Amino acid sequence: MGKNDAPMEVSAKKKVSRNIEIFKPKKIERRDPRFTEEGGKVSMLGFCKKYKFLEEKQKEEANELSKQIKNCKDPQEREKLIKKRQQLNQRITMQKKYKNEEIIKRGLVEENHKRIIEGKQPKFISKQELKEEVDKQTYGDQLKKVEEKRIKRESGKLMKRAPQQRREIKNKK
């Protein structure tokens, strides 16, 4: 029994209040039903279908921010606008990514269902494979370009660290 669990010591010389709450009633916790787990898992596909107008609105907002950035003269205001546009673009790509992930997962479930009906073993993919597939679908050619740039940058760093003679030999070839 800890120090806080012991009964509170009170002076006997003071009158005891009649309305002491010995057991405090539990505070009623009000929750928004949209964000509780009782409503089930959130489906990004369903969300995208219901709120498609928001997606279009976000794209319009991003275009509007780009126009404002071009016209803006104040550097501080421009920085704020650029940051806001980046956040908006990030949000759009993340929504796209979640949507693609759900599409891929649903496709896998359907494929496994067909395989089981045919009497074959279901196909399971790792989280890494799923992530790669989602990235391919979300970013497409951009992913390849970024990877090529990274490889080129790494090779450049290695060349810098290499002794001068080896660098000259590689350049002659």
From TrEMBL:
Primary location: nucleus
InterPro entries given in the database record: RRP36 (IPR009292)
GO cellular component, one term: 90S preribosome
Record's subcellular location: Nucleus, Nucleolus
Keywords of the record: Nucleus, Ribonucleoprotein, Ribosome biogenesis, rRNA processing
Residue ranges with Basic residues bias: 158-173
Recorded coiled-coil stretches: none
Region (Disordered): 146-173
Biological processes, Gene Ontology terms: maturation of SSU-rRNA from tricistronic rRNA transcript (SSU-rRNA, 5.8S rRNA, LSU-rRNA)
Bias (Basic and acidic residues): 146-157
Subunit field text: Associates with 90S and pre-40S pre-ribosomal particles.
Family affiliation: Belongs to the RRP36 family.
Record's function text: Component of the 90S pre-ribosome involved in the maturation of rRNAs. Required for early cleavages of the pre-RNAs in the 40S ribosomal subunit maturation pathway.
Protein name as catalogued: rRNA biogenesis protein RRP36
Organism, scientific name: Entamoeba dispar (strain ATCC PRA-260 / SAW760)
